[in-house]
């Protein structure tokens, strides 16, 4: 069994500790199961940017009710206006009455829990850093490139446009992962229609640009941390997609950066889903919609479970160019970004990982 170095010796060898941690194939949960009382050096941040003592609860991202949207044109326009305002000001909003039954949401969270809490030897069969696999389970996708590791384990799988065969998915969450992904795809099509309308475009404009073609389900498990003040569940970042639909459990701990530089909580609402604009949608809307930095605080209560569904072709090799949508440009509103391929964008993101800097800056004109 590989030994994890938890103290910082003279001549500390970070690369050695990263390799030792990775080779256990047990992730952060393995550390907790082993009963550690101090977190390994690879997880310790020199300065933990936290809003823990005085959370910004006076701010709240909009909660948008999608009920009756299909049967009431006036309500649909009202919702489009709300989505536009939220996407411009916050980059985040929550949706209720979105059409996905509560029991499906709950079973999805339980499916993720079953995967991570199953027999370790069964789980290890899925542990890999080969991102071409149909399902990839590991701890910290950027373990070897980031300056510090985050206190979480993750598995993700490509659910569209070429979903895995059922037998390629873990038995612990197979059925619910397929069912939930299908429901999120339906919701995504509706959201892209509303986003298009909120921009003054045809309802199918974003969909015809393949924004809703790809879906990746990213399932996080944040074990309880013995020293949450020293690390982060997920360091600050923006999402490298068009749109994200997030299912979070009752623990919360998700925070979003406001205009004034303060962090504020995104409180869990039973039955709600969190929706946020990704980098590629900000690029395509020429900064009209905002891809906003967010993070997850480590916690002692845990485990925290979340499922982030990323929409976009960002995980499918493609030479198609994406740039600001021409209908949104004018002499007074010239393009702010150069056109880029998903391949180029992802290559830059992979090289830098979650370094706290938006990749969009690299593509500014």
Automatic annotation (TrEMBL):
InterPro entries named in the record: DIOX_N, IPNS-like_FE2OG_OXY, IPNS-like_sf, Oxoglu/Fe-dep_dioxygenase_dom
Example GO molecular function: dioxygenase activity
PROSITE patterns, alphabetized: FE2OG_OXY
Name of the featured protein: Uncharacterized protein
Native species: Punica granatum (Pomegranate)
Family assignment from sequence similarity: Belongs to the iron/ascorbate-dependent oxidoreductase family.
Cofactors that this protein relies on: Fe cation
Alphabetized Pfam families for the sequence: 2OG-FeII_Oxy, DIOX_N
Keywords carried by this UniProt record: Iron, Metal-binding, Oxidoreductase
The keyword Transferase is assigned to this record: no
